[in-house]
Amino acid sequence: MTIKSALISVFSKDGIDELALELAKNNVDIYSTGGTKKYLENLGLKVLAVEDYTNYPEVFGGRVKTLHPAIFGGILYRRDNTSDLAELVQHKIPAIDLVVVDLYPFEDTVASGAEHDDIIEKIDIGGISLIRAAAKNYKYTSIISNRNQYASFTEHYKRNGGDSTLAYRNELALAAFNETRHYDTAISSYFSGEQKLELRYGENPHQKAHFKGDINGLFTKLNGKELSYNNLLDVDAAVNLIQDVSEKGKASFAVLKHNNACGCAKADTVSQAFRDALASDPVSAFGGVLISDTEIDLETAQEINKLFYEVCIAPSFSIEAKELLTQKAKRILLEWSKKEYKQPIVRSCLNGVLWQDRDLHNVEEEELTFPTKLKPSSTQVKDLLLADRIVKNTKSNAIILVKDGRLISSGTGQTSRVDALRQAIVKANAFNLSLEGAVMASDAFFPFPDCVEIAAEAGIKAVIQPGGSIKDNLSIDKCDEINVAMAMTGTRHFKH
Can you name the CATH fold of 366-488? Predict the structure, then answer.
């Protein structure tokens, strides 16, 4: 498609000069409005006023400029459609082969802390409509939807002698729809109350980072410095874990480090649950994130206050506990609304984005099958289910060891399940925690019988795993041989 006409309507004029001058050099008719028209005219270019073709002036302080059939018809008409061509002539609509738009800076305006009315005025209506129209008609119309494309488009335009290729117009259309999606998402986020919080840095000091979302809908910050990138990841992991392990009538407490539980326990009181959770790995607990599903009382706060931690989360704190824990200015206290969030998990990957449903399935007792001759006791079943919920929230490859309603030890993020198990056993021994009578959970099936054999040698009496290996029988037979009970869930819990 040879470009003979262009509509230029941009907020930022940075970088537009070279493109506009190149178009003018090739005798392209340039249409424009308002400030863009004045800027281009100051470059010495002849610019046609949009209102001369719409026969309608800009109104409402510039809120309505390009929204007119005379403009959108010139963008959307199909060049190979006889009826469209006849209507174009009939209504004296100017053909538009190229649309250049740079949208109002909505996100920058929000980030600047501007007043609500000023933010609303930076919602682009005409620009977003021009982008969508030109992108829809990409077979015939080129669309530049961001000022970062000015230079690359100019290079393509020169290289092709004033033409644009269909493949390139397709690329531009894809970029345009990504632009409108991002823009609309930013507006939606603003209206839903989401914030964009600039963080001190990312995982490391040399990485920039920000948080975008409605964290105030989940927590009230009672004390401490601003949450960091790593804090937020650990808080997310902590909330997911404690929601999974909570049990009516019991107090549950967990300690997390680098998104993994280094302590987790259930007890009749929150103070006992904290002590049991801390005992699993008091070394890793240093600088960790603490979370309770029950109000933290003074007794528990006194124990917590002896520990250096980054964040402490609970649905509430007693007045005395709050007074004590807020004495240390930097330590973060979050009062948790216990509101659930179930949005999908999204992460960047390669040259795109990965999307998946959140793992919300918690296995219940009635879902279990017991393939071994020895069946677990009712107490063991409770421990097995707890272990399965903890392993669900632990980085793969993962092994979790539980006894009497508490996490004894874990092996996390290993390249083999055997390594994860051996890591867990070594840690338990290091803290003099007996594994005699403990149970084991694996996040995925056992392809060989080595794990159950190693576990039994350490004193473990029951295991829970999803099953599904073509060699399941090897582990089952080994359990029967060494008198270990096995439960199968049918649900794998990889966490990468």
Answer: Cytidine Deaminase; domain 2 (3.40.140)
